[in-house]
Each structure stands twice: as C-alpha cells, then as structure tokens.
Design goal:
The chain is α+β, with helices and mostly antiparallel strands and 359 residues long. It contains 6 helices and 16 strands. It has one domain: L-amino peptidase D-ALA esterase/amidase (4-Layer Sandwich). Strand 10 and strand 11 form a beta hairpin. The longest helix is centred in the C-terminal third of the chain and has 24 residues.
C-alpha cells in the first residue's frame, strides 16, 4: 500500500502559536519536529523509564511507565467504555499524591492484572506509598481490547507486567507493534476486514529553557488515524478492494451503512508527562487538554464503546503556574498527536492486516 504521510511537524499556524506562547513565558521554543532531539520520546522527560513486554506471537503485550521518585498524576477519561484501575485515586480530592508507575496493556480487562506484577517489582525495591511498615506502590492502569487478534486466551498478566518493569529504561521508546500496541488495529468502523494495524508510538517536545513535554500512546482506534499536519489519513478503513482509504468520516457524513461498533473493541490509551511540579488538579487539566491531540489524530474519537484515556505525570522541576500550564497542555496535545501518527507508521503488517508505510 502506498504511503500517505507527509511531514509530521505541526502546521505553521499552530506551530507559530506555540512559539508565541513559549516566548511569552520566556521559554523560546525549538523546532517541534520529532527528529529535532536525540531522544524525542517520552523518556526524554527526566525521571521516566519505559519497558515493554510483547508476546512471542505478536498478538498482545503491555507497556510500563515508571516514575523514578514518583510523579503527581491526573487522568481524563473520554471514551464511553474504559477499562481502568486506580483512576479514582487521581482525583484532586483524594489523599494519595504521587504514583510510581502507569501500565498500559492489551488483553482487555484481563490485562489490568499486569499492574500486579509492576507493584510486586516496585515493592521489592522499596518503592511505594508508606503505610506503616508496608510499602504500597501506586500503579494506575488502562487497557485496550485486542482479544480478536490471535489467541484470545493469551493476554498480559502479573508475570508479564513484572517483565516489562524489569526492562524499563531511559532509552528512546521503541515504537510500532510492541508492548500495549502489539495487537492493536485501527479503522474498524467498516468492518475488521478493512482495518489496518495500530501500534504504540511516542514523541516529545523540548524547549531550551529545560521544559520537556512527552507522550506515549497505544492506538487501537475505531476511527482512522490522520496526520494533523496535512489532514491526510495515514492508517484506517480501506476501500472495498483493499486499496486506498475509505474515509470513515466521509462515510458517516454521507449516511452510508457502517458496522455497529463492538463493545470494548476500540481504545486509545496514553500517557503525557512534563518535568514540572504541579498539583493533581493541574495534571488533570493537562490530561484533558492532551485529548485535543487525540481528537486531531483519530477520527472519530471518544465514541461510546471507546476507552480513550490519558494520564498526565509531573516528574518535578519548575512550578507550573497558570500560564505555563496552558503551554504544557498545548504541547502535550501536539506531542500526543505525533505519538499517535508514530504508532501506526511504525507498525508491522500481521494477522491479515496491512500496516501504514513509514514516511
């Protein structure tokens, strides 16, 4: 299939706006292209490590983001069919202030068990919330549904979560058909037979003043993935003959018949992060703003049976006032959109589904 991807840099108007905002905060912005830094993935954010476990069949996996020293976190759930763990704890009114890792996993609700293994690993290292003589690692999680790929009895559990945590590193995040994105697919509204491979992607934006905003996404969307820089579909529902793109939104606008969305079959789950000190309320606001990037890159998004969920982590650094918070939220949306495009353009064909070609 021919590649349909142009540059993944921000459109000039939005890039100009972000530069102006950064200058207003005395933080001159660098080029927003993902290739501008040596590590332009989530692990460019100081204090974060990422590890994957992928089943040997390539049908499922899980991804762990470990926050060395903990992180103040928030979450925003927009999909109508989420599968999550410990998200209530991230509400500003709740007592626990820091998380120690976040897990994204395939395997539907079964995959939430991967967080048990991450907890066990961190407990052995003495990392967690102190509760008397005990240490309780705080590990929120979100899952996607990939049981229709390969053997549905194969899914991540505690052992697999531990393995992902044990290999977590600060190296640039591996993208494509790995970890939580291993069994992902996109463009399913016209039926699985016309879908394409999803995947896992990451991106980061660094400013000379030291601020780094990163994103990581596992993309298992019902809708098409669009490059916001060009408005072109890069992966999604294919034409009836398997070539080109059908354009899901065009089908919806025309009233053409579409497949009924299947419960729990579609989800994009993500983590965004910045090296700042903020409150849980501020983190939740950034998670909310980051969803703008998801909606720019996935069309349609936030459907009743999607589980679209974004976590936001602050790993420590400069205090985030209202002005800086807005900049971080805008950059988080930009980074998340780039991570989503990276997920599908880095994926490999498999399980009868083609993959988008890299630019």
């Amino acid at each position: 299939m021919r590649a349909m991807l142009a540059s993944s840099s921000a459109p000039a108007s939005r890039r100009g706006l972000l530069r102006a905002l950064a200058c207003a905060a005395l933080l001159p912005a660098t080029d927003l292209m993902r290739g501008a830094q040596a590590n332009a993935t989530l692990t460019a954010v100081p204090g974060l490590r990422v590890g994957h476990w992928t089943h040997e069949s390539g049908s499922t996996g899980c991804t762990v983001v470990i926050a060395d020293g903990g992180a103040v976190a928030g979450v925003d759930v927009r999909g109508g069919g989420p599968g999550t763990r410990e998200t209530d704890l991230l509400a500003p009114a709740m007592s626990v202030q820091r998380v120690h890792a976040v897990v994204l996993s395939g395997g539907s609700a079964y995959g939430l068990a991967a967080a048990d293994g991450v907890m066990a690993h961190l407990e052995e290292l003495g990392i967690g919330f102190r509760a008397g003589p005990s240490v309780v690692p705080i590990v929120p999680a979100a899952i996607l549904f990939d049981l229709g790929i390969g053997d549905p009895s194969v899914r991540p559990g505690a052992r697999e979560g531990r393995l992902a945590a044990e290999v977590a590193s600060r190296s640039p995040v591996q993208a494509g058909s790995v970890g939580a994105g291993a069994g992902a697919s996109v463009g399913k509204m016209l039926g699985r037979g016309r879908a394409m491979r999803g995947g896992l992607g990451s991106a980061a934006i660094s400013l000379p003043g030291g601020l780094v905003v990163g994103a990581l996404a596992a993309v298992n969307a019902l809708g098409d993935v669009v490059d916001p820089a060009t408005g072109r579909i890069v992966a999604g529902a294919r034409g009836e003959d398997g070539s080109g793109f059908a354009d899901t939104m065009a089908h919806l606008r025309s009233g053409a018949a579409t497949q009924r969305a299947q419960p729990a079959g579609n989800t994009t789950v993500a983590v965004v992060a910045a090296n700042v000190d903020w409150t849980k309320a501020q983190a939740s606001k950034v998670a909310q703003m980051a969803h703008d990037g998801l909606a720019r890159a996935v069309r349609p998004a936030h459907m009743p049976f999607d589980g679209d969920t974004v976590f936001a982590l602050g790993t420590g650094g400069r205090p985030a006032d209202a002005s800086l918070l807005g900049i971080i939220g805008a950059l988080a949306a930009e980074a998340l959109a780039s991570a989503i495009v990276s997920a599908v353009t880095s994926a490999e064909a498999g399980f009868g589904l083609p993959a988008a070609a890299a630019p």
